[in-house]
Amino acid sequence: MKTRPKRIWAICLMLIVVPLMSVALSSYLLITGNMPEALELTLYNLSIMFLLPCALIFCSVMLFLGKPNSHRYVLSLSIAYFGLLIYQNIYLFQIENLPEETISKITSNIIRTVIELLLVIWVVFSNKTKEFLSEDNSPR
């Protein structure tokens, strides 16, 4: 039985906490009625807002448990989740007359999100992860 690499501990923690915060904030805004009017709350928007982070959390737990092929689901969902966050932040640059402080915050959000996505890619494609997820070594 192989031990779980530290990189899987770290990435799974990140992939559980970040989407969990997203779901918590979205739920809070929805329950309190403070959702910005610019957001059109359609069934599609609500499903993306809640199902994508929840699926990422679930698949991250499966990766942590060493389930075969879970790394593929984590990678796919991470690209979708973090890709949408990057797109959303880039879209905000289209707003005219943004204060310099806001531009700085958006830029730092984009950089942080790209780093998070690169970390996921690094962990998923690392040899240690492949060894851990090989069927004869992973804990059940």
| Pattern of helices and strands | HHHHH
**Helical/strand content category:** mainly alpha
Helix tally equals: 5
User: What is the average per-residue confidence, as pLDDT, rounded to a whole number?
Assistant: 89
Q: How large, in whole angstroms, is the Cα Rg?
A: 17 Å
Low-pLDDT runs of 5+ residues are none
What is the strand content?
A: under 5%
Shape: globular
**Largest sheet report:** none
End-to-end C-alpha gap: 9 Å
Total strands: the figure is 0
Q: How many discrete structural domains?
A: 1
Helix content: over 70%
Topology:
Elements: H1 6-32, H2 43-64, H3 70-92, H4 100-124, H5 127-133
Structure, described:
This protein is mostly helical. It has one domain (6-133). 74% of the residues lie in helices and 0% in strands. It contains five helices and no strands. It has helices spanning 6-32, 43-64, 70-92, 100-124, 127-133. Helix 1 (6-32) runs antiparallel to helix 2 (43-64) and helix 3 (70-92) runs antiparallel to helix 4. It starts with 5 loop residues before the first helix and ends in a 7-residue tail after the last helix. The model has no long low-confidence stretch (mean pLDDT 89).
